[in-house]
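Reviewers of the previous submission asked for a worked example of the structure-prediction workflow described in the proposal, so we include one complete record here. The input consisted solely of the amino acid sequence. No template or homolog information was supplied to the procedure at any stage.
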Amino acid sequence: MAKGGSGRRRTAASVDDIPAPPKDLRKSAATMVWPKGQIIHRIHLGLYQGAQFNPGVKGNARFSPVKDAKGNSIPTLYGGTTFDCAAMETVFHDVPFVIGLKTHDRQKLIGQVYSQAAPQRDLVLADLTSTSLRNLGIRRNQLIDTEKDRYPQTRAWAAAIHAQRPDIEGLGWVSRQDDRALALVLFGDRVPATDLMPRGAPIDVLTNLDVYSALLGLADRIGVKIVHASA
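From that input alone, the workflow returned the following structure tokens.
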């Protein structure tokens, strides 16, 4: 038991001790390319269109909101390589890792829409996969697998990469919520909205039968039942 306990302490310490970004990321930050035409799947508030960036003023996400070197808010757009990834990173983001039935309030789906957008050119992203993180001196469990209370520290990395690498247009990583897929966030001051082509209008996740059925299927696979709060 003592051996196991010390292991837990080491794990906790490694997560708690999130290093600050290096002062020089010009050589250590590797890049990946999101190819022209590869669909970005998104689930987001219906306030925004499929290829519209969030202005980046409010919120509490892993890599946003952040500001540039001059203190201006950086617009951001999140997405993933699949529908499941988009849903797991948004709708089901906070589903706990526990055995047995879990419930999700159907009311939380109100106002959520599903969109697809296709980049009209290759997009250059900072590579935040585990292999590339080694060169940055930070582990995945310190940057990608952290909980919300660590987001101010993970956002500092996004701000540092943006400030030090003007060639980088966003961040890419293996999704924490769906490790079969890649997730990304784009910087709106480097990717004009005209570089993203929406594929159709945003689709309401509750009223569209196909999309809602896909959500129900995913919910079933992760042991979640979508219920009315009053039920």
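Residues 33 and 124 are 5 Å apart (CA to CA). We consider this example representative of the routine output the project will generate in years two and three.
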